[in-house]
Amino acid sequence: MLCQRFIILQHPRRKVVVISDNAPIHKSKVIQSFLLSNQKKISLFNIPSYSPELNPDEHVWSYLKTYELAAHQAQNKNELRKIVDKKMRKIAKKETLIQSFFMKDYMH
Questions:
Q1: Angstrom distance (rounded) from CA 59 to CA 100
Q2: Per-residue pLDDT at 104 exceeds 90
Q3: Is residue 15 pLDDT above 60, yes or no?
Q4: E strands, the chain, in order
Q5: What is the secondary structure of the chain as a DSSP string?
Q6: Which of 21, 27, 107, 108 could form an S-S bond across to 100 if both were Cys, CB 3.0 to 4.6 Å?
Q7: Per-residue pLDDT, 105
Q8: How far, in Å, CA of 14 to CA of 34, rounded?
């Protein structure tokens, strides 16, 4: 829930869209209460449990591994973390690519 509060603070003038995979933790009383008290700031969309093909996050990770990290040469976790951060920032600047993750049609 800390993540949701952080997102709301980072985007005070926007309504935040959250896509949930219906995991049990996302249905807890604490989360449901938080969502109810922040209805004007958060829209929740649920996808079926165990459906990675519908989860945009899965498409981002797949793209990252397939296209951006295919030839990485990190020697340790810290180097890999830096490379991933750099590649994710690169992806974040490509609006059409981000939209494609929601359409299951990677545009590389």
A1: 9
A2: no
A3: yes
A4: 16-20, 42-46
A5: -HHHHHHHHH-TTSPEEEEE---GGGGSHHHHHHHHHTTTTEEEEE--TT-GGG-HHHHHHHHIIIIISTT----SHHHHHHHHHHHHHHHHT-HHHHHHHHHT----
A6: 107
A7: 57
A8: 17
Which amino acid type is present at position 55?
N
Asked if the model's pLDDT at residue 2 lies above 70, the reply is no
Structural domain boundaries of the chain?
2-50, 53-103
Distances in Å between the Cα of 92 and the Cα atoms of 12, 85, 95, 97 are 20, 10, 7, 9
pLDDT digits (tens, 9 = 90+) for 51-98: 888 888 889 999 999 999 999 999 999 999 999 999 999 999 999 999
Q: For tokens 């992806």, what's the residue?
A: 91
Instruction: Write out the two tokens for 10.
Output: 């980072």
Tokens encoding 6: 């952080």
